[in-house]
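Entry 14. Structure prediction run on the chain below.
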Amino acid sequence: MSDPRYRSSFGFIDLLFNLLVGFVFLFMLAFMLINPVAKKETIKPKAEYFIILEWDGEKPYDLDIWVKDNLGHVVSFRRPDDALIHLERDDLGTINDTYYDADGNLVYLKENRETVAIRTNEPRNYLVTIHFYNARKNPAPLVHATVKLIKINPYREEYHKKLFFSQEGQELPAMVFRIDYNGNVDVGPTEELIIRDEVVRKEGA
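Output returned:
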């Protein structure tokens, strides 16, 4: 026979304490899920050089810049960011070239421009080619394009070249340039290609 005088309430208190601990844990977990720890923003270094490609803004054709450095880094629309080389804008021809102004009128931006930024002055060699990626199911007559190398500070156009494409899928060499230890640029024409050579290299691997 049990005597009420000797009954213990510690078991009930332990149960309440465990429930309280579980509730606090679930509350903290829910709070963390609602307010995740903010990630530190990655701050890109300022651009030192721009490679700018421009072509007829009224044509739907999609042209692409390809850049390869002497360390083997390749940047294009397929890999837009590598080793401080960044594809800032991938222009798709006339796609996404429309917007609505404040009055609700549809505005057509007649500009085709693709830009790659180089965010380092460290000594490297760079090869630049241009690829006629897509004719958008349109006939592909002669397409005129201009590619430039711009140094930002101080501002100076280091190189300027005109290219002429006659068919979809064509890759043309644009330039090769070297940045030395003093930040000087040596730039000139080339016959090297990137896409073709990359395909050959991978097939031979």
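The longest helix spans residues 10-34.
Filed with the rest of this week's runs.
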